[in-house]
Design brief:
By secondary structure, this protein is of the alpha/beta class. It has three domains: 2-44 and 62-70 and 207-277 and 389-438, FAD/NAD(P)-binding domain (3-Layer(bba) Sandwich); 97-191, no CATH class; 280-380, Polyamine Oxidase, Chain A, domain 2. The protein has helices spanning 12-20, 62-71, 105-120, 132-157, 178-186, 209-215, 256-262, 268-275, 346-362, 391-404, 411-414, 421-438; strands spanning 2-8, 27-30, 42-45, 48-51, 76-80, 83-87, 90-93, 198-202, 221-222, 227-231, 236-239, 244-252, 263-264, 280-290, 299-301, 311-314, 328-337, 371-380, 407-409. The strands form four sheets. Strands 1, 2, 9, 10, 11, 12, 13 and 19 form an eight-stranded mixed sheet that branches. The structure holds flavin-adenine dinucleotide. Flavin-adenine dinucleotide binds next to helix 1, helix 11 and helix 12.
Length: 440
């Protein structure tokens, strides 16, 4: 079969790209699962709706905000972030660096003095790609590094902070002033700073409502078609079903590693560069609880090693349509080094669930009479693409090589980046534009 444009993956990158291609252009989207959405999928279980862990819409780009608001017209709720950090047996407000109020005095002193020292020191830069470790010490000082930035990020990324660059920080790490840090040490201030101070979430059907709206009346979606082999020279993609398509342009939102793995005849350097890309995996445990919890929080970060999870969120506080009346629901996220989660069997996953539930009791999230009425687990792999010192050079070279062969590797995993739903929609838009231009 011939198709001018083949799109691999019906996540929100692939769907938005297809939506914006001219109808005169013959394209097909091929997705290995039996539903659209990729990571933006939602399952229904015992009356609860569970996303593949918390998926909250942070909409900063005007064009994308308009698109999402149009697609989910009348279904989108705006929320003011209510997020926390749990450390030293204390809940403090997010972001940690601007809210140490309530922590042991010794910890507050270490954090505040360290911050002032860092901001007032005049240290010459070392040049080259900035390392995350150095960036944190320069911006936040030793106390905040020790009590949150290093511990939390090592837990999340699963690698020592000295192996991470600071490229991914962008909007993700709020950068307060000395005045904000001092005030946040003296007072319990609820002023919200940072990129996710407000967010949106769909009232109905979980985050699945977004890909469903993108896919509504969109022709050319083929489910349960897993791409398994790619001939970049003859421009042929083969699927597990036996289907073979000769394309002119290929859009792939698959992981860059997976795409390169399935491609034949690539130069050895490209194969080696893809093999060097690192990632972590996330076990997402979702639980339904009875009776309803009293907390109004959205999510809590856990930097300390003694708790298995790095973050726990309240799914039921996102929409009351996410759970039956009189119940609550939570999402729990635990990070693993690449490969170790994929290898975990059912028994090992259950052990991790039990350990997490007992930790949730220790930190007071599961309140005294709480009963777990349903449990669901998702393995997400890859979950976070690791920004080590080789990542950017390798990703750029692989994607440039593929582009010369008519392949656009895009989206969170195609571009091998730390990004959000908003960025995935933008990848879809800009890729459709590039394809349109290439046919002019
Ligand atoms: C733990 C976690 C939490 C997150 N939380 C948020 C959040 O709160 N807010 C936010 O904005 N973003 C969040 N994100 C990011 C968000 O999930 C992504 O940015 C977005 O979903 C990426 O969409 P995509 O289409 O690029 O990729 P994907 O959703 O990964 O889509 C790729 C598609 O390709 C399919 N596929 C894979 N292999 C094949 C194959 N061989 N053949 C055919 N199809 C294939 C997959 O099944 C999938 O449907 C989070 C991500 C993670 C991991």
């Amino acid at each position: 079969m011939n198709k001018p444009v083949v799109i691999l993956g019906a996540g929100i990158t692939g769907l938005n790209c297809a939506r914006l291609l001219p109808r005169s252009l013959d394209y097909g989207i091929y997705e290995k699962e039996n539903s659209v959405g990729g990571l933006c999928r939602t399952v229904s279980q015992d009356g609860f709706l569970f996303d593949y862990t918390g998926h909250l819409l942070h909409l900063k780009k005007p064009g994308i905000k308009k698109l999402v608001k149009t697609l989910l017209h009348g279904q989108l709720s705006a929320h003011h972030r209510n997020s926390w950090i749990y450390s030293h047996q204390t809940y403090t407000r997010y972001p940690f660096q601007a809210n140490t109020y309530g922590l042991p005095e010794k910890v507050i002193k270490e954090c505040v003095l360290g911050f002032i020292e860092a901001r007032t020191a005049s240290r010459p830069g070392q040049g080259g790609t900035p390392g995350f470790e150095e960036w944190v010490l320069r911006h936040f000082g030793r106390g905040i590094a020790r009590h949150f930035m290093f511990s939390y990020n090592e837990k999340l990324w699963t690698v020592p902070v000295k192996e991470l660059t600071a490229e991914w920080l962008g909007p993700y790490v709020p950068d307060p002033t000395i005045a904000e840090v001092v005030t946040g040490a003296l007072l319990d201030q609820s002023r919200r700073v940072g990129y996710n101070a407000n967010f949106y979430y769909p009232e109905y059907n979980g985050i699945q409502s977004l890909p469903d709206a993108l896919a509504h009346k969109l022709p050319g979606i083929h489910l349960q078609e897993k791409a398994v082999q790619l001939n970049v020279h003859d421009r042929i993609v083969k699927f597990e079903s036996g289907l073979e398509i000769k394309y002119d342009r290929l859009v792939s939102s698959l992981s860059l590693k997976e795409l390169v793995n399935m491609a034949e005849g690539l130069p050895l350097t490209v194969k080696q560069q893809a093999a060097a890309l690192r990632y972590n995996e996330v076990l997402n445990i979702n639980v339904g609880i009875k009776p309803a919890l009293t907390a109004a929080k959205h999510w809590v970060y856990f930097p300390e090693k003694k708790y298995p999870f790095y973050r726990v969120g309240y799914t039921s506080n996102l929409s009351h349509h996410n759970h039956p009346a009189g119940t609550s629901s939570l999402y729990i996220e635990i990070a693993y080094r690449a490969g170790s989660l994929a290898r975990m069997n059912r028994h090992q996953v259950n052990r991790q669930v039990n350990e997490s539930l007992s930790s949730l009791r220790q930190v007071g999230i599961l309140e005294h009479p709480s009963r777990i009425v349903t449990v669901n687990t998702f393995k997400i792999s890859p979950a976070y693409c690791i920004y080590d010192f080789n990542r950017t050079r390798n990703v750029t070279m692989i994607r440039d090589f593929l582009k010369k062969k008519g392949i656009y590797s895009v989206g969170r995993y195609g571009a091998w980046e730390y990004s959000a739903m908003e960025d995935a929609l933008e990848w879809g838009r800009s890729t459709a534009e590039m394809i349109k231009k290439s046919y002019r």
